[in-house]
Amino acid sequence: RGLTEVPEGIPVDATEIYLHHNSITTIGPNDFSKFTYLSYLWLNNNNISIIHKDAFLKSSTLTTLELHFNYFRKIDDDAFSGLINLHSLYLYHNELEEMPIFRISTLEVLYLSGNEIRTIPDGALDGLVQLKTLRLSISKFESLLNLRSSTLESLT
């Protein structure tokens, strides 16, 4: 508790990293690049507002990423590149004003509830060919006209 950045000294063979409930503000380009077995990462309940575009470039084993209750206003479309095995992404209760265009073909669960998102840009979900669950409740949508997905089983 009380960490302001990702600490050094985490074993490189870690499969799960718990860094929730700290004061981390940024996810840098090399913060998680050395963890070749990492499958689950908890970064929720921090003060994160910036994800470097290469932050997860070498995180191909990550399957679950928890980033809820942080301070994201915008996430670059490339922020999650490298997450080729990600199944679950939790971004609820941030301050996102626009939905990123996700290019994660393995993603099955996406939580975006409780953000400031008003519209979904064309193509935002096109790359989510495995998406089954999408949570958008408590958002400020003006329109969901651009929401298209052939695999979606649950939308709330």
From TrEMBL:
A Pfam family annotated for this UniProt entry: LRR_1
Record keywords: Leucine-rich repeat, Repeat
Domain of life: Eukaryota
UniProt-recorded name of the protein: LRRNT domain-containing protein
Annotated source species: Capitella teleta (Polychaete worm)
Lineage: Eukaryota, Metazoa, Spiralia, Lophotrochozoa, Annelida
